[in-house]
């Protein structure tokens, strides 16, 4: 999948670079995406690409890491 959050669907937006002389050229604002391991309600662990807002809001639950003795 491209540069898109798998939870909220956030995608790149288009804007402009604006120079000192006010010349505008196109640019892209990319979302801050991170690949994290997500634990599904069934207990399955899957790697998903999510934006940092979804991570901070708790939309993604990380799996519990258990230390072996």
Quick recap of the structure?
The chain has one helix at 52-57, and strands at residues 13-18, 24-29, 33-39, 45-51.
Overall description:
The structure is a single chain. The N and C termini lie far apart (38 Å). The longest helix has 6 residues, at 52-57. The chain has 1 helix and 4 strands. The strands form 2 sheets. It has a two-stranded antiparallel ribbon. The model has no long low-confidence stretch (mean pLDDT 93). It has 69 residues and is mainly β.
For the structure shown, list the relevant keywords.
single chain; about 70 residues; mainly beta; Ribosomal Protein L24e, Chain: T; two-stranded antiparallel ribbon; 1 helix; 4 strands; about 10% helix; elongated
Topology:
Layout: E1 13-18, E2 24-29, E3 33-39, E4 45-51, H1 52-57
Antiparallel strand pairs: 1-2, 3-4
Family: Belongs to the bacterial ribosomal protein bL28 family.
Protein name: Large ribosomal subunit protein bL28
Organism: Nitratidesulfovibrio vulgaris (strain ATCC 29579 / DSM 644 / CCUG 34227 / NCIMB 8303 / VKM B-1760 / Hildenborough)
